[in-house]
């Protein structure tokens, strides 16, 4: 139940954290070297991203590589989840060789990566009611964030288990790749995690780190607390503070340093890129009431849509530069039901059904 306005409140005392690694230091989670790319302008490091993609999955030499990028969008992830299930029902769902996810897109990504056999778990995650129970208005606890850390962590733990980890590891060993992005607040950089490489290590530590990355990627600042991830460098232990990857990269196909560059040696030649955006992009004109809250909400909505349109334009430029076919989808402007913070079972179920219907009727993808 929500706290009563008259209920006593304990003073907010942030726990003391270990310092982050020194600037420029190479750091990794203990026991997990080489499972991420932390990039700003280091093109030599960025080239490793293409090495991941170059490994393929047993394709014929001229077969296009199938790439799926899943964006953030909070509760709007129900649309993307429904779209994937609808693609399964239509028989038009590709087997994706490379799946990337940010925020709610990172939560969807393992199921998108594993394919139709995991549709039931994906559907339950967004429509089964547990997300509404964990993240509904009754779960709000005003403090450093709207929700306490255990709410999002509990949601992830319910759907990410040893069986999922083993399935991701198997697909990774077959040459496919699953990546998720977080924002490293200390370094102010995007951090791209190779979730398949983490899963392939196996064991409780791998499951814990896999879940931590998903939680970090979906930790919208102010809505959820940041995630501290313990790392090591030069024999010393540090803590990095990570939040929602959408704080820097609302979606990604390749790391930012490569987005306007031609793919070296054509490692992704004949790629087909699918971008699922879990929010609306088109303007929704309506009068804005005078008042602090309505103006803030509408301004945030405007900023969010503009940011996502810019990210999609960057992906489109990358695809045009490399001759890749781009398919994109987002919540249509004529559907008035999207709210990234409305974790309501009925609303999310309707959004899921809408995404599924569009996919089944062949109305999902816009060809660019």
Structure keywords:
368 residues, alpha/beta, Cytosolic phospholipase A2 catalytic domain, 11 helices, 10 strands, disordered N terminus, PNPLA_dom, PNPLA domain-containing protein, Acyl_Trfase/lysoPLipase, lipid metabolism
Biggest sheet, in brief? 10 strands, mixed
Pattern of helices and strands: EHEHEHHHHHEEHHEEEHEHE
Whole-number mean pLDDT: 83
Q: What's the CATH C level?
A: Alpha Beta
Question: How many β-strand stretches?
Answer: 10
Percent in helix? 25-40%
Rg value: 20 Å
Q: First CA to last CA: what distance?
A: 47 Å
CATH topology title: Cytosolic phospholipase A2 catalytic domain
What are the low-pLDDT stretches, counting only 5+ consecutive residues below 50? 1-12
How many helices in DSSP terms?
11
Beta-strand portion reads 15-25%
Which architecture would the CATH scheme give at its second level?
3-Layer(aba) Sandwich
Find the structural class using helix and strand composition.
alpha/beta
Shape: globular
Keywords: Hydrolase, Lipid degradation, Lipid metabolism
GO molecular function: hydrolase activity
Protein name: PNPLA domain-containing protein
Motif (GXSXG): 101-105
């Amino acid at each position: 139940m929500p706290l009563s306005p008259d209920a006593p409140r304990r003073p907010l005392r942030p726990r003391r954290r270990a310092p982050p690694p020194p600037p420029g230091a190479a750091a990794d989670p203990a026991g997990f070297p080489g499972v991420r790319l932390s990039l700003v302008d280091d093109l030599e490091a960025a080239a490793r991203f293409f090495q991941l993609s170059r490994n393929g999955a047993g394709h014929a030499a001229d077969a296009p590589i199938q790439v799926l990028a899943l964006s953030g969008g909070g509760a709007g992830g129900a649309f993307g989840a429904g779209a994937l299930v609808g693609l399964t029902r239509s028989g038009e769902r590709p087997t994706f060789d490379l799946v990337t996810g940010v925020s709610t897109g990172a939560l969807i990504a393992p199921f998108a990566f594993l394919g139709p056999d995991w549709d039931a778990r994906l559907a339950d995650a967004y429509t089964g009611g547990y997300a509404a129970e964990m993240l509904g208005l009754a779960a709000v606890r005003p403090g450093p964030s709207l929700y306490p850390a255990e709410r999002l962590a509990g949601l992830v733990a319910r759907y990410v288990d040893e069986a999922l980890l083993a399935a991701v590891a198997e697909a990774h060993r077959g040459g496919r790749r699953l990546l998720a992005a977080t924002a490293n607040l200390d370094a102010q950089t995007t951090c791209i995690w190779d979730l398949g490489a983490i899963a392939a290590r196996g064991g409780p530590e791998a499951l814990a780190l896999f879940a931590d990355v998903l939680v970090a990627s979906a930790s919208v600042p102010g809505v959820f607390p940041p995630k501290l991830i313990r790392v090591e460098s030069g024999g010393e232990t540090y803590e990095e503070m990570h939040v929602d990857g959408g704080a820097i990269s609302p979606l990604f196909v390749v790391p930012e340093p490569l987005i306007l560059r031609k793919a070296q040696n054509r490692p992704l030649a004949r790629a087909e890129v699918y971008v699922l955006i879990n929010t609306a992009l088109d303007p929704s004109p309506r009068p804005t009431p005078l008042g602090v809250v309505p103006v803030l909400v509408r301004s945030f909505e405007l900023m969010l849509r503009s940011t996502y349109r810019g990210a999609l334009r960057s992906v489109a430029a990358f695809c045009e530069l490399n001759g890749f076919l781009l398919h994109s989808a987002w919540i249509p402007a004529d559907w008035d039901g999207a709210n990234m913070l409305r974790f309501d079972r009925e609303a999310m179920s309707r959004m899921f059904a809408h995404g599924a219907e569009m996919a089944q009727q062949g109305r999902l993808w816009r060809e660019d």
